[in-house]
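JOB MANIFEST
job_type = single_chain_structure
chain_count = 1
residues = 538
[input]
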Amino acid sequence: MKKLVRIWLPLLLAVAFAFGMLVEANMLRRTGLMKISSRRSSKIDMIMSNIQRSYVDTINMADLEEKTAVSILKELDPHSTYISAEEFAEMNEPLEGNFDGIGVQFNIQKDTVYVVNVIAGGPSEKVGIRAGDRIVTVDDSLIAGVGISNNNVMKLLRGQRGTKVKVGIARRGENGLVPFEITRGQIPLYSIDVSYMINHKTGYIKLSKFSRTSYKEFQEAIAKLKNQGMQNLIFDLRGNGGGYMDAAINIVDEFLPNGKLIVYTEGAHRGRDDFYASHRQSCAGINLVVLIDEFSASASEITAGAIQDNDRGIIVGRRSFGKGLVQEPIMFPDNSSVRLTIARYYTPSGRCIQKPYSQSDDDYYLDLETRYERGEFMERDSIRITDSTEYYTTEGRVVYGGGGIMPDIFVPADTAGTSDYYNKISRKGCEYQFCLEYTDRNRVALQKLKTADEFAKYLRGQNIFDQFVAYAEKQGVKRDARGIRLSRKLIETQVMALIARNVIDNDGFYPIIQDIDKTLLESIEIVENKTVKSFINK
C-alpha cells in the first residue's frame, strides 16, 4: 500500500495544485490582470543586461529569464509560481467550463484509442461517431498500435473551433475503416460529476472542481433535486482541489442566512477583505453533510470551513489538504504569468486554512505521504494539530486551525475487501479492460437499460462476477478462493459501475459504487438520523 501511495501521490497532488493555484475569480475582478509595463533597476536587471551584452557564448535570454523567475519564486511559498504561456492555457481550461474539440471521451486500451462516450450534441455525435468506435487514423496518420499517449491524442483531436479533422474509424460489423470528417466545436466541461436522489429524501451532489460554471451547475442540480423531494443533501468535495473562490462563495451563500461571514482574506500588504452571505438561501432548511478528504483543497476548504464555523452542516471524512494562500496574477506580454501569493484565507472563526510550509518544498509536497505513514488516514488520534489555539463556531463548539479542515465526524480510509487477488487484478487493469470489452460485445442489450438499478439487476443476472474472474484468469491472474471470497463485493460492484458508466456515464456509475463507499454510507445514516441542530447540541 505504501508503494502505491508513493507512486500515485505526486500525480494526485499535481492535479490538486493545478486547480488550487489558479487565480480566484474575485481577485481577478477586483485587481484585473497586472501587465508588466516597467521594472525598477535591480541586481537581477543588471546581471541579465550584462549577460546579454557581454557573456562569452550566445545565450537564449528568454529561457534564462524563465529559469530565473522559477528560482526566485521557489524562495517564497509553495504556491507562488511561474507559469509558461502553454501551461497557463492548459491549467485554465478545466476551470473555464469549455474547450474546442470533437466531443468524445476516450480510453487507450491495447494500444488502441477506444471511444467510451460521445458528448450529446457535440461535433462527433452530429457526424455519427458512436461509443465503442476505435479511432485508427487522424488526418491520414496512423495512431493505433504505435504507442500513442493520451496527451498526443488530445493534441491531434483538439483544435480551434471551425477547423476540420479527418478520422478513420474501426467499427464492429464494418469491413475496413469508416471515414469521418468532423468540424471541431466548443465542448462543455462540467464540474458537477453527478447529482441524483439516493432515496426519496436524500440527494447527492459530487463537485469535482470550482469552475466558472460551477455555481450555475449547482443551482440547476439543487432545483432538480428539490423538485424530487430532497430534504437532505450530501455534498461531496472529496478529491476537489479547488478553483475559483467566487464559485465557492456563491455556493455557500445558498446555505447561510444573510450577513453571515463566509471567508476573509488578509496579507501583509493587503488589508482584511470579508465576504458575507446575502439573501439567497435556496437551500434553507435542507440538512447538509459535506464530505472532504486529504485531497480537498483551497475552495473546497473555504466551503467546508464556512459551513462548519457557521454550524450549518456536518463535515464528514478526513482532514483536508491545507491550501489557504491567495494568488494574484502578473501577466507578461507572451501570455506567461506569475502567480504571486498576496494573502491567506481564514474561516469565519479566524482559522488559517494554510498548513505550515517552513520546511523544504519536498517536505511540503510529501506531507500527505507523511500523514499516511503515521496513520492519520486510519486513526483520528494520529492527526497532529500544529496550532493548539481554540477557535469557536457560532454555537460555541471548539475547532482547531493549523492547516486544513478537521471533519466533525472522522471516517478512516476504507481497506475492506482488499486482498492479494484484488491487488493483482488492479495492477493489471483487468477491471477496465474487461468492462470495455464486455460493453463493446453487449452494447445493443446494454443500451436498453436506462438506470443504475436496471444495470445492477441485469448484470447480476448475467453472472458478471464469474465472467470477470474467468477473464482475469486468461490475463494471468490465477483464481484465489480466499481472495475471491474477501473481494467479491468490491470487485463485482466496481465492474457493474464501470459497465454502467460506459453506457450512461456517471448517472450509472455513482449510484452503483455508493454500495462500497464507506464514507458516503455513513453520511447517509448521519443525515437521515440527525439534524444539524441535534448534532451540534448533542
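[summary]
The chain is about 40% helix and 20% strand.
The first helix runs from residue 2 to 20.
exit_status = 0
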